[in-house]
Amino acid sequence: MILAIDIGNTTIALGIFVGQQLVRKWRLRSEQEKTADEYTLVLLNLLGWAKIKEEEISGVIISSVVPPLTPVFQKVCRQLFGRRALVVGPGLKTGMAILYENPQEVGADRVVAAVAAFAKYGGPVIVVDFGTATTFDAISAKGEYLGGAIAPGIEIAAQALYEKTAKLPRIEIKKPLSVIGKTTETSMQAGLYFGYKGLIEGLIAELQQDLGPETKVVMTGGYAELFFPQQRQALFYEPDLVLEGLRLLYEKNRR
For the chain, where do the domains classified as CATH 3.30.420.40 start and end? Predict the structure, then answer.
């Protein structure tokens, strides 16, 4: 069994793979204040609940965009499984050329998602990841990571409306019945949902102008399902894209 850990700014995704199959997955809140011992207890409880013994985990791979938590989870893996985890970063083979001016600036999760999207769908392909930030990553027909765009995540926008105004409330993010809101809450939901829908469609269209009209689009992350248009061709929803990419990178690097 392989344990894949994706440490994000808001949540930590964990997945257990048996061969190519994702058999268990969990999400934890990303908390920099927690110690390795605390995360060890959490993970131990999750494994126990899933009836998985520590010795059944034969390998671990980590991607992280929260540097303080990377050594914490490396220590967790040593304590629980007695082995060193692979960490996505310099020195780890991805099989993908990173054509950023400074490749080390690219978030590990973006590279991992790009590897998984290209492996499954080929290129050119665009990955839209709805995380704390909403990222758009472009991969060429040759499988090169070209770069992309970063926009504030929809939760950040909703939080900013609540925190930076005197009277606007905290709201649930969902698709409203109409773009014309009849209350403050539905007006905010309309602005957030349809505003982000326009942002997503606009950036995808701009990227496809550069990559070509045949470019496929893969959506992933927390709010991907909310914005996924079921009827559109060459557009795919992959909720576990980063975990799948971590499995692929583990297989490529485990020796």
Answer: 2-87, 103-246
Q: In 3D, which of 244, 226, 215, 251 has the Cα closest to residue 113?
A: 244
State the architecture of 103-246 in CATH terms: 2-Layer Sandwich (3.30)
| Cβ atoms < 10 Å from Cβ of 27 | 13
What is the tens place of the pLDDT at every residue in 83-122?
899 999 988 999 999 999 999 999 999 999 999 999 999 9
- The residue count for the chain: 255
**Active-site positions?**
109
Closest listed residue to residue 161, CA positions, set 201, 192, 203 = 192
Identify which of 156, 153, 147, 157 has the alpha carbon closest to the alpha carbon of residue 206: 147
pLDDT digits (tens, 9 = 90+) for 187-203: 999 999 999 999 999 99
The Cα 109–Cα 48 span in angstroms is 27
Domain 2-87 top-level CATH class? alpha beta
| CA 229 – CA 36 distance, rounded (Å) | 40
Pick from 111, 117, 128: which is nearest to 226 by CA?
128
Distance, CA of 72 to chain centre:
20
Q: Where are the alpha helices (DSSP H) in the chain?
A: 36-49, 69-81, 108-121, 154-163, 184-211, 224-227, 241-253
Amino acid at 91: G
Q: 43-46, long-range: CB within 8 Å, 24+ apart, which pairs? A: 43/14, 43/76, 43/80, 44/80, 46/14
Give the contacts of 222 (CB within 8 A, at least 6 positions apart). Answer: 10, 11, 130, 131
